[in-house]
Design goal:
The structure holds three protein chains of three kinds. By secondary structure, chain B is mainly alpha-helical. Helices cover 65% and strands 6% of the residues of chain B. The longest helix of chain B is centred in the middle third of the chain and has 50 residues, at 244-293.
């Protein structure tokens, strides 16, 4: 009798298992969990897993549970392409959430186009790209740099010093900003950092340092002279690690946010965990989400995420001192935008989901406010300007609602 | 170890105590307990009110001239003023006392009355900073506070503060401020403030309608080498409507100020070059021992520096609130001392010897575990230690998290003094002295101690030394430990100027090897010369090319070409060995 | 000893070659998907990449294993080869790019009006193909000439090549350098008139990689069996003695360095169309060190070892980065330490090591103390 019972039980488990197997949909997570970019990207993996668990707990997508396939791009761009191929060709995932750097996106783009996959990309980038297989929940340049400059102009700033790491995102952003500042009547001699010309055409504006640069003495002393005459500010597109030596040097030289504020586009709450916060008090940031947003939706999101963190047993997740930041929330928003689109389309089929997403009718009330997917694969969203506090959080100074994401900006600002 | 090493840290600690005592005393003096009640009331309402009302009160505070007003207005934007809501619902602005109990709680002092907050029974209430609401400021409010502070600061005891206040008032070019500034001229004794006053007055005089006064003001600014007014003077020079005499004077002034900037940049570049060179020296000195003397290519050198930096991080947290770590799913909680004030600020001095020791121990483990088998195969020591560096980096990620960790510099290391518009950062001055000290210590150890003699003997000829009865294994171990300890010290310093993260060492490793190779392997003095040389050349190229990337590439190319000319570096260690 | 292979070896090589060049692609092309014998397009592509990395590794072995020169810049040559072919592939995209322009996309948004002069000749496939070997060769020649002439050797050579690679990497990161900056060259569409993303093209690339690997292997094998190869090994073992015997050691080293760079260039050129991107991070010193790892793990101075090592380590990497992303660097680093300390002959040397150990055990009790020549000569006081 006992034996029969156990056999039945086993059979039941087997049936349930097979049912479960049918009831799942595979979803890819493609981020660097090792190497130089792991610093930023692991947080996105965490928030994605959280979103999947949240959705699974409330019944999944179209009645199917999400089964995440997490792969490590290891900060290695060819490996990103290989992993993307693996996700699409072997695991046959319905959608992929991933990538941080532009080069990783560029590297997987041909793979997604060939295999007709679907990628949600969550990190602020330089624009100038539009693939039918990628949806950019990220901030386009006009959803970050332009509002920040508007704010600074509004504050009476007259001199702008551009500094960044020597690669595509800072250079493109600064070229767009140069056009924008000139169109706003800022004379070219008030734009610091240096201009490079080819003939009469300005090909690059701003000061650029190599990746991993650690010595900012010369540049900071230049900024100090630049800012001596007042009403100056710095637009910072320095990438990752180099921000620490930059800000330490900046504050050691006696420059403060009151004399000459720095607005940074690559520093979110997550990066602040590694920065000497008291050297940065009053410096500005511009994102579509801040952890300090005082709405019930955001408070619930943070509380749920913290609760999930303390209960999760996924290896490699740091549980202490965790914060939420804009790329994380845009990843999270991406998951829900996809879910909404799938539910509206009634299928996981990529072409149909894309049609629904492109219809402009898919939106989601996320922790940072309402986001709506546009026809051009970018997202209409709210943009906030914040200044940093000693605890590494941002105090929100200004809110721009319903900013339309526009990837192609170069040449769109006429010089007045 | 030689005596100088024992004396070094001890004297430094004593020095820091002295500094901190002075610091404490000044803070205590700042609190004038017998402040007028109406000043206190005004201050409190300035904090609690809003909008135009707030702006009016803050402007009015300038007239009080009170040290307390200054004290509070300074700490307000820093987030050191808190709001306490009493049971009746009244909001009371308070400051927290510096003395904290074990739980990090401190007594709160009412700004409006100057007495401690108490409960109904008269017992003082205590709070942690998290329990109270912060009195927030935004940049508009801070601008107001700034202006009031600038006016208050005209009578500040610190000349540097007076200079900055005067310049701000000058650059605003408000004729209304002219009288205040002129009134200060006679009272002011400090040379720098006098100069700033002259600049500010001249700047405001530029707004005068009389061309003669304008021209005189422009010439005055040129004589004063006023960098701050360069933009304004340029504006005057380009102004087509201005009087020709003024334009001419302004054009000459622009030329003169630009010339002065050249001179400032020249000396600034030399200082920055020396400071960069000192950093290179500090990071390369450990390598000069392990690579230069022992011939071990330690690719994990950078990771050993990271150990030093992480040690500072741990020590800082132990002095502060303690530290929670979760390596491999375990939870480790290190309690903190909750130190404050000068004791907390001195954490960095305590962390230096600890960083040296921890790094030295790891170095010795590395030597015993891996390197001791590879003395005959230097190329393979390169490979094995690269493996070690990969493992260590990932271990840091697993222990401390992939993200950089936050290390706050003590106050005495942040800040600077300016001489003739050249900025001398305290941390930069510190590293120059630090580099000099450890080079001197290393030199003493190698040349004046018995251990140094043994080290040199073993490094010159391992087998021969062994035949003479030297316990080479021990000497190898200690030498490698010493080199690693120096790397740890370097990492400890780097934590003050850069990021502390798993890949900290990677940013320096190429530079390190180049410095040692250029200096001549085996020559400590050569390493010193090459480090300072690379530093100065790098900074000069940045100044000339205005392009850090090309500067770096040119420096690397120049080193490679230099080695064509002197393949063994600047200083060649003479050897009769063929295979060298 | 002029014979390149013993009979046994020859048969083994032949079998491996037939397997790699004929059998595997056939299994991919002619068996239905889902069949037991089927090899997926994904696997073919991945194996194609491994084979190109193996080509690079064979070049490194020729340089390090046989001549004793540890270059940390081999990935620079690999990347240069990749860039040369990548430039050609970029020009083939034509108007299919984002901006529908004849110029590559990144040039359009950096504001170029026309193609820079040094890009023009890359319209020709054969020119690009020649450049994949010539450019690395020339760079290696100049670098080698400078270093070997002034007798920079051993670890100094390693450190110098590392610095050169680092400088080149920084240079290629710059947008102004006209090679696409950090984003590199990507989104290729065609190669020699075929759609580069189709399964058939990828299979073709795999076959070409396999054939090239075989040719490179045979060439290196031939080279080391000549008198030249002997001098090469003599340089490795004692350069001074070679010099005293009247040979210009520097010229031999230079020759091997250039050959090895050209092999790396070919590898890079075959790698890029299969992985679809080349960017400056391909030439980081870290990558060069990884190649050394493959060679050491496989077994150096064997030529077979590097191929085994490249394939094994990369397959392990593909697997471990999925299963244990957090522990992958520890595994790689640990593997490396173990190989250096305990397996100086690598994987292919393991059978030999076991046999040697067994023999030692057998003979030790009879022969008494046999001093091993590798034991540390230090005497404890």
């Amino acid at each position: 009798m006992k034996k029969l019972f156990f056999t039945l039980l086993l059979a039941l488990v087997a049936v349930v298992n097979s049912l479960q197997a049918q009831e799942t949909v595979k979803v890819g997570v493609l981020h660097s969990l090792s190497g130089t970019m792991a610093i930023s990207e692991t947080s996105l993996r965490d928030v994605l897993l959280f979103a999947f668990d949240e959705i699974n707990a409330s019944g999944g997508v179209l009645g199917k549970k999400i089964q995440p396939i997490v792969v490590d791009g290891a900060s290695n761009w060819p490996l990103f392409a290989e992993k993307a191929k693996q996700l699409l060709e072997q695991d046959k995932v319905a959608v992929t959430f991933g990538c941080w750097t532009s080069v990783s996106r560029k590297s997987v783009l041909p793979v997604f186009e060939k295999d007709n996959g679907l990628l949600f990309y969550p990190v602020q980038y330089e624009g100038e790209e539009l693939s039918k297989n990628i949806f950019y929940t990220a901030e386009a340049v006009n959803q970050q740099a332009i509002p920040a400059v508007d704010y600074l102009l509004d504050q009476g700033k007259k001199k702008f010093y551009l500094i960044g790491t020597d690669y595509v995102y800072p250079q493109t952003t600064n070229l767009v900003l140069l056009e924008y500042l000139l169109s706003k009547g800022i004379p070219i001699e008030n734009i610091g950092g240096g201009l490079r010309k080819e003939g009469d055409k300005v090909v690059s504006a701003g000061k650029y340092t190599p990746f991993g640069h650690t010595d900012y003495q010369q540049i900071v002393s230049e900024i100090k002279q630049f800012a001596a005459s007042g009403d100056a500010c710095v637009i910072n597109t320095i990438n990752g690690d180099s921000n620490v030596p930059f800000f330490k040097e900046y504050s050691a030289s006696g420059l403060t946010a009151d004399d000459c504020p720095v607005v940074s586009f690559s520093l979110s709450e997550d990066e602040f965990r590694g920065l000497p916060a008291k050297d940065l008090v009053g410096q500005l940031g511009c994102w579509t989400y801040f952890m300090s947003i005082d709405t019930p939706a955001n408070k619930k999101f943070i509380a749920d995420f913290q609760k999930w963190l303390s209960s999760t047993n996924v290896p490699g997740i740091v549980k202490e001192k965790r914060v939420t930041c804009s790329p994380m929330v845009l990843s999270y928003d991406g998951v829900y935008l996809w879910k909404a689109a799938v539910e509206k389309a009634g299928t996981f089929d990529v072409d149909k989901v894309r049609d629904v997403l492109e219809s402009g009718s898919i939106s989601f009330d996320g922790p940072g406010g309402k986001v709506t997917m546009q026809k051009n694969h970018h997202v209409t969203k709210t943009v906030y300007i914040g200044e940093t506090k000693a605890d590494g959080q941002f105090k929100i100074l200004k809110t721009y609602t319903d900013v339309y994401g526009e990837p192609f900006l170069k040449g769109t600002f006429a010089k007045k | 170890m030689g005596n100088p090493f024992a004396a070094g840290p001890a004297s430094r600690i004593a020095w820091s105590w002295l500094v901190s005592i002075v610091f404490l005393v000044t803070i205590q003096l700042g609190y004038a307990e017998d402040e007028k009640p109406e000043t206190r009331q005004a201050l409190a309402s300035a904090i609690t009110s809003t909008g135009d009302e707030q702006a009016r009160i803050i402007d009015g505070l300038a007239e009080t001239g009170s040290p307390l007003v200054r004290q509070i207005l300074v700490s307000w934007p820093r987030g050191e003023i808190f709001l306490y809501t009493d049971p009746a619902g009244t909001i009371i602005p308070v400051t927290l006392d510096a003395d904290q109990d074990g739980a990090g709680k401190a007594k709160a002092k009412r700004i409006d009355t100057g007495v401690w907050l108490t409960d109904a029974a008269g017992q003082p209430l205590t709070f942690t900073s998290q329990e109270l609401k912060l009195a927030e400021t935004d940049s508009k409010l801070r601008k107001l506070i700034r202006n009031t502070l600038d006016l208050l600061t005209l009578a500040d005891p610190q000349p540097a503060n007076r200079v900055s206040a005067v310049m701000k008032l000058g650059l605003a070019q408000k004729p209304a401020n002219l009288a205040v500034l002129e009134a200060r001229v006679d009272k002011e004794k400090d040379k720098k403030v006098q100069k700033a006053l002259a600049e500010a007055i001249a700047l405001i005089q530029l707004k005068n309608t009389d061309p003669k006064i304008q021209a005189a003001a422009v010439s005055k600014l040129a004589d004063l080498h006023s960098i701050s007014s360069l933009d304004i003077v340029k504006g005057v020079a380009a102004d087509k409507t201005a009087d020709p005499a003024v334009t001419a004077a302004a054009t000459a002034a622009v030329k003169s100020i630009n010339g002065y900037i050249q001179v400032v940049n020249f000396f600034g570049t030399i200082f920055r070059g020396i400071s960069l060179g000192s950093i290179l020296l500090v990071v390369a000195l450990g390598l000069a021992i392990t690579f230069g003397l022992m011939g071990v290519i330690n690719m994990a050198h950078g990771e050993i520096m990271a150990i030093g930096a992480y040690t500072v991080y741990v020590v800082e947290n132990v002095f502060g609130r303690g530290l929670d770590l979760s390596p491999f799913g375990m939870r480790i909680s290190i309690p903190g001392l909750n130190a404050t004030g000068a004791f907390y600020e001195s954490y960095f001095l305590f962390s230096l010897p600890i960083a040296f020791l921890v790094a030295a121990v790891v170095g010795i483990l590395l030597e015993r575990g891996v390197i001791q088998f590879l003395y005959k195969r230097p190329l393979e020591s390169l490979l094995a230690t690269w493996g070690v560096s990969q493992v260590l980096q990932q271990l840091y990620r697993l222990i401390f998290g992939a993200a950089n960790v936050q290390v706050n510099s003590p106050r005495w290391l942040s800040g600077n003094f300016t001489f003739s518009d050249v900025i001398f950062g305290y941390n930069r001055l510190f590293v120059i002295a630090f580099a000099a000290l450890i080079v001197f210590g290393t030199w003493l150890l190698l040349t004046k101690t018995p251990l140094g003699l043994l080290i040199r003997a073993v490094m010159q000829n391992r087998s021969m030394a062994s035949c003479m009865g030297v316990r080479t294994e021990r000497v190898n171990m200690l030498t490698f430990g010493f080199g690693s300890g120096l790397a740890g010290l370097a990492g400890a310093f780097l934590s003050q100027i850069g990021n502390v993260g798993p890949s900290l060492g990677q940013n320096y490793i190429v530079d390190c090897f180049m410095t040692v190779v250029l200096g001549g392997v085996g020559s400590i003095f050569g390493t010193v010369c090459s480090a300072i040389g690379i530093g100065v050349v790098d900074q000069s190229l940045q100044q000339i090319l205005l392009n850090p990337v090309m500067g770096k590439i040119i420096v690397l190319a120049a080193i490679i070409l230099f080695l064509q000319w002197r393949p063994a570096g600047i200083f060649v260690t003479k050897s009769r060995s063929l295979e060298g | 000893m002029n014979q390149i292979f013993s009979r046994k070896e020859g048969i083994a090589v032949l079998i491996c070659a037939v397997l790699a060049i004929v059998v595997v692609p056939s299994l991919n092309a002619f068996t239905p998907a889902g069949s037991f014998l089927h090899i997926s397009d994904f696997s073919i592509n991945q194996w194609g990449q491994y084979l190109t990395l193996a080509i690079l590794a064979v070049g490194v072995d020729l340089l390090w294993g046989y001549t004793g020169l540890l270059s940390l810049g081999q990935c620079l040559f690999f990347a240069l080869g990749g860039y040369a072919l990548g430039m050609h592939l970029m020009l083939l995209i034509g108007k299919l790019g984002q901006y529908k322009s004849d110029l590559p996309d990144f040039m359009v948004f950096l504001g170029y009006q026309k193609l820079p002069a040094h890009w023009e000749p890359f319209h020709s496939f054969w020119f690009a193909a020649a450049m994949t070997m010539l450019v690395p060769g020339i760079v290696a020649f100049v670098l080698g000439f400078l270093t070997f002439r002034s007798r920079i050797k051993g670890v100094y050579f390693s450190i110098l090549t590392q610095a050169v690679t680092y400088a080149a990497c920084l240079l290629f990161f710059r947008n102004e350098f006209t090679f696409g900056g950090n984003n590199g060259l990507t989104d290729y569409k065609f190669i020699l008139g075929h759609d580069i993303r189709s399964a058939a093209t990828q299979r073709g690339l795999y076959i070409v990689s396999a054939i090239v690997l075989l040719l490179v292997f045979l060439f290196c094998r031939w080279l080391i069996s000549t008198k030249f190869g002997k001098i090469q090994r003599a340089v490795r073992d004692s350069e001074t003695r070679v010099l005293f015997s009247g040979y210009a050691a520097a010229n031999y080293k230079l020759f091997v360095f250039v050959i090895s760079a050209m092999i790396a260039g070919i590898g890079g050129a075959l790698y890029v169309p299969q992985v679809g991107i080349i960017n400056p991070s391909a030439m980081s010193t870290e990558k060069s060190l990884e190649v050394i790892v493959w060679v050491a793990v496989g077994g150096r101075a064997t030529l077979v070892g590097p191929i085994v090592g490249a394939i094994c380590v990369n397959a392990l990497k593909s697997w471990a980065t999925t299963k244990y992303p957090d522990f992958w660097p520890i595994m790689l680093g640990g593997l490396f330490i173990i190989v250096v300390l305990f397996l100086p002959k690598g994987i292919v040397g393991i059978p030999g090591q076991i046999i040697a150990m067994l023999r030692k055990k057998e003979t030790a009790p009879e022969g008494g103390a046999i001093s091993s020549p590798t034991a540390a000569p230090e005497v404890k006081p």
